[in-house]
Amino acid sequence: MGKLENHRKSNKIKEIIIFILFEIIFTGVTALPFALYGPFKNVRNTIISTIMGTGAHQYIAKWFFNDAQIAAIIKEENRAENAIDNNKKGEPVKVQYNDDGIAEYRPDTDKFNAIVLVIKNPKRVKIGYSSHIGYVGDTTHDIAKRYNALAAINGGYYEDTSGNGTGAIPSGFVISDGKIVYPKDSSKLDDKMDSVMSIDEDGNLSVGGSYSANELIKNNVKEAFVTEPYVIKDGENKIQENEVLGLHPRTVIGQAEDKSIIFLTIDGRQGLTKVGASLKDVQNLMRDFKAVNAVCLDGGGSTTMYYKGEVINNPSSATGERAVPDILYVEQ
């Protein structure tokens, strides 16, 4: 009887395991179609606009909807965004600095948690980089510590064909403290790159230019790398109502009328509600802080903010804080 009882228990355990596996697979297979075709249009609109905001996975939306349907969903999502925007007072934030010359704000919404650092003196903002740039990256946290930074955010775009690489190779050149630190190949230093962010010797931030590394050095630029998209340029909003409004974690740098520098990180991919921000959200937030120039840095799983010795946002990467080739930091 003992063997028979053990056999029955073994079969029962197998049945339970099979049932649990079936439930997991069934839920996974049916969850997305239910979310897209179910009664909750806001959920559907958010999912589709977010998918269409990515470069690599737009095909997923096209499994379920044709181009005309996707366009209509995005238009409906835009109207919802505009309704939220119109309800805002639109009053700029009155910045009050701490003793360290930095003001900290946390303008959270139903869609995301954000952190803003406003740096009074723009000349304190520099680009730092991995000690082995071009070969292996490092975390924002560790690069910031190496520079004894007071605050930092992750930097520009980098090449990452695997989707979770070493953060080694910047997408373009990197200029730090008036020196070209990447690429090492001098034959490429006269090649023009689009979507350049730069800070000159007077602390003036420029976004969206087309320059070579050597050209910037001749123009007394101290810090520069390649990143996009810019959301505000020379006082003009660049994100229009018909833009695809994917919701993602975001990292942004901007400059206000008084030349103060604005660091912004927006968390996302944390449950069904805190999914992230659209480019329109980014533009609105930067306008709240009187930005006249603003550009997105590498976002998604790379989004990281460091302040006073620790990471103060919640990076969304499943593997923890992601390695990057460069950062923007604030000198002590």
From TrEMBL:
From the Swiss-Prot or TrEMBL record, give the protein name: Phosphodiester glycosidase family protein
* Record organism: Clostridium neuense
Give the GO molecular function terms: hydrolase activity, acting on glycosyl bonds
Which Pfam family, an example, fits this chain? NAGPA
Cite the entry's keywords alphabetically: Glycosidase, Hydrolase, Membrane, Transmembrane, Transmembrane helix
Q: Where is the Phosphodiester glycosidase domain?
A: 148-330
Q: Which domain of life is it from?
A: Bacteria
TM helices/strands, residue ranges: 16-37
Q: Which InterPro entries match?
A: EpsL_firmicutes, NAGPA
